[in-house]
Each structure stands twice: as structure tokens, then as C-alpha cells.
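Dear support,

I submitted the protein below through the web form. The confirmation email said the job was done, but the results page showed an empty box. After a refresh the structure appeared. I'm attaching both so you can tell me whether what I see now is the final result or a partial one.
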Amino acid sequence: MRSLYRHDAFASFSAVPSPVPRADIDAVVFDLGGVLIDWNPRHLYRRMFDVDAEMERFLAEVCSPAWNDAQDRGRSWREAVDGLSALHPQERARIEAFDTRWAETLGDALQGSVDVLAALRRETGLRLFALTNWSQEKFPLARARFEFLQWFEDIVVSGEEGMAKPDAAIFERTRQRFGLDPARTLFIDDSVRNVDAARALGWQVEQFQSPSQLAAALRARGLPGS
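What the results page shows now:
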């Protein structure tokens, strides 16, 4: 879902009510993993490794971010597991776990970020979307678990599109599909590469670092923070 498997998670956040949104934003597009959902393969693999250094080597050299990115771009998990297991037959059980136990890579919702989303939904008339790098085979598991995903008008899932952030093509597809004006659309993502790509295409952007940072950044724009 991201080009790097991040180590950190974020605490929940609460704040005072915020003012009416500024008129120069019509829509907000959220990333999901790392912004609203604590997704991290370490949630699974800490149960499978006794030594963190061995787990980190496995996630860097075997089930790497680049390998996972191909599933985010539409490659099937069966093909992914079989191909990687042929290269690392001694690791087949752990490779297969990424597929068969994928649900265990999901942590909790980042509640402070969900509170921000709820405030935007409750207090503004802004259109709300999500644009996520996620396998089309695994995204239904997230939909079933996280009710707030229903709050979005629509969600663009990279695996369904056969392309992923930071490619310009997926931003353009999102723009066209929903009739967005990039200059009046705010894109929120934790990845510097994705934020830079959106900015280069004329989108307004905020790089997510924590729920409290996001809430403050939105309040500075005249939007509700939570």
C-alpha cells in the first residue's frame, strides 16, 4: 500500500470546533493506509519472527515493498506468492502468510484521523473521496471492517485500476472520474512521493504526519479539524 513499510502509528486526537470551510476547496481526497488505517505487515510478522532484525530483513529482501506494490497495481496474490516462493523456497510459509493471513496486517483505525474525516462530513458540504494503493483482492476485507469507508462518495483502489500512486495516470483518472478541479481539491497522503506527484499536477496537498498535525493544518485552511 505504500512504497515503504512505516514503523509508526498515531495516537488519537481531539480538538475544539472549527470555522466554516474556505471557499477555494470543493473536495478532499484521502489516502487510507497510514492516514486513516494503521496498515503494517509487522502486525503479522512480529507473530512469526522472534528476532526483529530477521523480520526486517525478510520485509526488505523477500516480501519487500516493491513486491507488495505489484499487488497494489493489480497482480494476483496467487501469482505473487508462487513467483516469490520459487525464488525463496525456504520462506514459502512466511510468504504465503502475507496472503492467507493478510487480515492480520491491519491494525486499528487511526481514530484521530477518523474524527477529522467525521468533522468534514458533518460540518462541511465538501465532496469526500479516497485514493488508495491497495490490492483489489484485499480491499473488501478493509471495507467490511471499517465502517467509516462508507462515508466517502467513492474510493479509487489502485488494484482495480491497474495503476498506483505516485503515477500521474491514477491522479488523472481520479480527476476525470469525479469531475474534480485539482486547484480546488485537497489531497492528503503520508507519502512524500505521492504528495509531490499531486502537487506537480496542480492539486492542493497536505502531507500527513499525525492526526494532530492534520487537524492543525486543516484548521489553518479554515476547515474543521475534528
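Response: this is the final, complete result; the empty box was a page-load delay. Strands lie at 27-30, 37-39, 106-109, 127-132, 154-157, 185-189, 204-207.
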